[in-house]
Amino acid sequence: MSNPQQLRYSKEHEWLSAAEDGVSTVGITEHAANALGDVVYVQLPEVGDTVTAGETCGELESTKSVSDLYSPVTGEIVEANQDVVDDPSLVNSAPFEGGWLFKVRVAQEPEDLLSAAEYTDFAS
Amino acid sequence: MSNAPRLTALDALHRSLGATMTDFAGWDMPLRYTSERDEHHAVRTRAGLFDLSHMGEITVTGPQAAALLDYALVGNIGGVATGRARYTMICREDGGILDDLIVYRLADTEYMVVANASNAQTVLDALTDRAADFDAAVRDDRDAYALIAVQGPESPGILGSLTDADLEGLKYYAGLPGTVAGVPALIARTGYTGEDGFELFVEPRHAQALWRALTEAGAPAGLVPCGLSCRDTLRLEAGMPLYGHELTTSLTPFDAGLGRVVKFEKEGDFVGRKALEAAAERAGANPPRRLVGLVARGRRVPRAGMTVVAGGEAVGEVTSGAPSPTLGKPLAMAYVDTAHAEPGTEGVGVDIRGTHEPYEVVALPFYRRRK
Q1: Which residues carry this modification: N6-lipoyllysine (chain A) (predicted)?
Q2: Residues of chain B with a CB closer than 8 angstroms to some CB in chain A
Q3: Looking at residue B267, what is its pLDDT?
Q4: Best mutation site among A63, A66, A87, A89 for testing chain B: the one with the most B CBs within 10 Å?
Q5: How far apart are CA B356 and CA B309, in angstroms?
Q6: Of A34, A40, A92, the CB nearest to B323
Q7: Is there a contact between A63 and B299 if contact means CB atoms under 8 Å apart?
Q8: Both B30 and B168 in a single domain?
Q9: Amino acid A13: pLDDT
C-alpha cells in the first residue's frame, strides 16, 4: 500500500490533508483500515464540536473490535462525512478518498505529525 | 509447552495468500484473507474453504470404546451407528461443561472425538483419566490430522467433482472414509456455519495438495478461502454456541439450553449424572437465566461481557456479539434473566460503553438456511 505524499500522518494512524482556507480533511490510513478489518459503524464528532490533537473524538467499529478515533489536530469540526456514516465500508475501500471522516478548522497542529515516508516506516 | 504458536500444515499457503493471522488457542490461524464480510457472504451463497487444523482429534479404540464414551460423555455414544456422528458434551462431576464435542463412530470399536483447540488437552486428560477401568485406549491424534472444511451451498458440487464417495448418501452428521483429489480422507458432513458442508480430516502431509485441489475445483463456483473471523459470525447467526462464550465450566448443558444432549435414559452411570439430574429439574422448574438472541435496533455492536439492561437494572450478560453480514445489523447471544427472556420483551438494551442501546429479544437461531 502507498501513503499519499501530500498528506501528513499521526502515530494513531490518522491522515491530515494540507489546509485550504484553514480547513483540513482527516481520515484513517489504509494500514489502519486493513488492521481493523471491515468497518461496520462509524461515530464521528459533530459539526461545531471542538477536537483536541491526540484525544478521542469518535469510534470505529469493525467485525472484531471497536477502536477510538483520535483527532490529529486541535480545532473545530466544520463537516462530518455523512457518506461514511451511511456506508462505513468506504473506510476500507477508499480510506484516503471517499472514506474521509471529518473536516476541521485547524487551530493548532502538533509538531510531531509524520511525512508519508516517515509514516510508512512507522507503520511497517 | 513452548510459547511459540503452533503452525498448521497449511501455514505457508495462508501466508502466500496474504492472510491476516491471529493467535487462537496457541495456534497461528488465518483470521481473514480479504474482507471477512465477503468471506461470510461467500459461505452463505456459494462456498468457503477453511483450515481448521487446530481442532483436537482424540481416537478411542478397544472392545469397551463405546462403554467408555458412554461413561465419560453425556450423550448416548454406544447408540451412534458406524459412519455417523453425534454432537455431545463432556462434563465435570458437578455438571459443569468441560467442552462440546463431535464424536464420529469410525468402526464398531473405534471413535474419533473432536474437541475445541482450547480444550483439547483438558478433554484428552479427562478421557484418559476416565478410561482407567475400561478396556479401551485413548490416543492423542492432534498431530495426525489436518482438517479442511468446505462449507456453503456449492460445497457438494465442488467436493463431488473431486471424489467418488457417495456424497448424496452422506447425511448431515455422518462421516465416511474416502479419497478426495487422490488424498485419503475422512469425509464428514458437519460444520459450524449453518450451511451445508463438509469437513475433511487428512494426514497433514496431504493438506496442501487437498487445499489446492479444492481451490481449483471451487473457483468456478465462487469458492474463496475463509478465516476464523467469518466462521465466528457464521456460527453466531446460526445460533451455535462457542466454548468460552456460551459454554463454560460454570454452566451445565441445561443452563445453556442444550439439555437435549444429556441422555439420562442410557444405561449405567456417567460422569455428572447426579448433578445433571438436579440441573435438569432446576432448568425445568425455575431457570435463573436463559440464552437468548438480541438484535440491535441501532448500529453499535455488542461484545462479550457487556451488560444486558432493562429499566436501568442489569438483567444479563452478552456472551457473543458481532455485526451480522446476513442481517445487516449487530447481533448478540446473551444469558438473560427469565423475566426478560421472552421474545419480544420490551425495554431490553445493552450497555455499550455507558449508553443503553435498544435491543430486541428473539429466539435463536437468527438465521436458518433454506433446505
Answers
A1: 64
A2: 20, 31-32, 35-37, 229, 233, 299-301, 303, 322-323, 330, 353
A3: 87
A4: A63
A5: 7
A6: A40
A7: no
A8: yes
A9: 96
Per the domain annotation, does B82 fall within a domain?
A: no
Interface with A, mutate which of B21, B23, B229, B351 (most A CBs under 10 A): B229
pLDDT at site B2: 59
Average pLDDT, chain A: 95
**What residue in A sits closest to B233 (Cα-Cα)?**
A63
pLDDT of residue B71: 98
The per-residue pLDDT of chain B, averaged, comes to 96
Query: CATH number of the domain that B212 lies in?
Result: 3.30.1360.120
C-alpha cell at B253: 448443558
Classify residue B337: in a domain, yes or no: yes
The size of chain A, in residues, is 124
C-alpha cell at B298: 441501532
Q: How many whole angstroms from its chain centre is CA B295?
A: 22
Helices (H), chain B: 11-16, 36-45, 65-72, 120-130, 155-160, 207-218, 228-237, 273-285
| For residue B131, pLDDT beyond 80 | yes
pLDDT band at B370 (very low <50, low <70, confident <90, very high): confident
Record the cell numbers describing residue B66, joined without a space.
463405546
Residues B355 and B227 in one domain: no
Let me know how long chain B is. Answer: 371
Q: Which residues of A touch B (CB under 8 A)?
A: 34, 37-38, 40-41, 43, 61, 63-66, 89, 92
What pairing do the DSSP bridges indicate for beta strands B224-225 and B48-51?
Answer: parallel
Q: Is the pTM of this model over 0.90?
A: yes
Q: Do A38 and B299 touch (CB under 8 A)?
A: no
Q: What is the DSSP string of B218-249?
A: HGGGT-EE--HHHHHHHHHHTT---BTTTB-T
Give, as one character, the DSSP assignment of residue A18. Answer: P
Domain ranges of chain A: 8-109
- A8-109 belongs to which CATH class? mainly beta
Gap between the Cα atoms of B77 and B67, Å rounded: 8
B300:A41 CB<8 A: yes
Cα–Cα distance list, A5 to A8, A26, A45, A53, B46 (Å): 8, 15, 26, 21, 40
Mean pLDDT on B165-192: 96
d(CA A34, CA B17): 15
Q: What is the CATH number of the domain that holds B316?
A: 2.40.30.110
List the one residue out of B76, B73, B150 whose CA is nearest residue B113. B73
Task: Say how far apart CA B185 and CA B206 lie, in whole Å.
Answer: 9
Q: Are residues B169 and B298 in the same domain?
A: no
List CB contacts of B62: < 8 A, sequence separation 6 or more.
B68, B109, B134, B135, B136, B137
pLDDT (average), residues A48-61 = 96
